[in-house]
Amino acid sequence: MQIENNKVATLHYTLKDNEGNILDQSEDGSFVYLHGALNIIPGLETALTGKTAGEELNVKVSPDDGYGVRSEEHMQEVPKEMFESDADIQVGMQFHAQGPDGQALMVTVAEIKDEAIVVDGNHPLAGMELNFDVKIIEVRDASDEEMEHGHVHSPEGCGH
Ligand code: ZN
Q1: CA atoms of 126 and 124, how far apart (whole Å)
Q2: Is 7-67+126-149 assigned to CATH 3.40.50.300?
Q3: d(CA 139, ligand 1 centre) in Å
Q4: Ramachandran angles phi, psi of 64, nearest 5°
Q5: Residue 160, pLDDT score
């Protein structure tokens, strides 16, 4: 069975940067996703299309097909009084914020100034070339419910 829209694929993957540092890997040995539902980055989804269980592939994904290019527009100065006064803010800390359209956003503290905190709303992997080593473990048909929800269900069900 080939990976295509409305199939559920189980993968082992390792994600490395161009220097070979491991950035991420499948937790507990495997990762399951619904193909064609934008559950994974477009570059990886395209590379997996038509592949079958047992195949291994190395995929290099450009920022455009990954987490996007870095944008200075996503850097923002937030007045310090917006934070709790006893909060111990440090560079590199990540927290949830709300984007301009009310969407949930993960931001990283980039710089601490006298009066303001500079936060970076770019995805931590934005602007990077991503190198995936992937092994396809299993491919199966998605259930009607999974297709309707646009994500994979565990044997226990939906989970939300
Ligand atoms: Zn669901």
Answers
A1: 6
A2: no
A3: 19
A4: -60, -35
A5: 66
Neighbours of ion ligand 1 (CB under 5 A): 149, 158
- Contact present, 31 and 134 (Cβ < 8 Å): no
How do residues 52-84 score in pLDDT, each as one tens digit? 999 999 999 999 999 999 999 989 998 988 888
Contacts of 7 (CB under 8 A, 6+ apart): 1, 34, 35, 36, 139, 140, 141, 142
Distance 42 CA to ligand 1 centre (A): 21
Distance, CA 40 to ligand 1 centroid (Å)?
16
Q: Residue 153 Cα, ligand 1 centroid: separation in angstroms?
A: 6
Alpha helices in the chain (DSSP H): 42-48, 144-149
Check: CB of residue 48 under 8 Å from CB of residue 58.
Answer: no
Side-by-side strand order, sheet with 104-112: 75-79, 116-120, 104-112, 94-98
Alpha carbons 123 and 128: distance in angstroms, whole number: 10
Does the reported pTM lie above 0.85? Answer: no
Pick the CATH number of 72-120 from 2.40.10.330, 3.40.50.2300, 2.60.120.650, 3.30.450.20: 2.40.10.330
Cα-to-centroid distance, 3 and ligand 1 (Å): 20
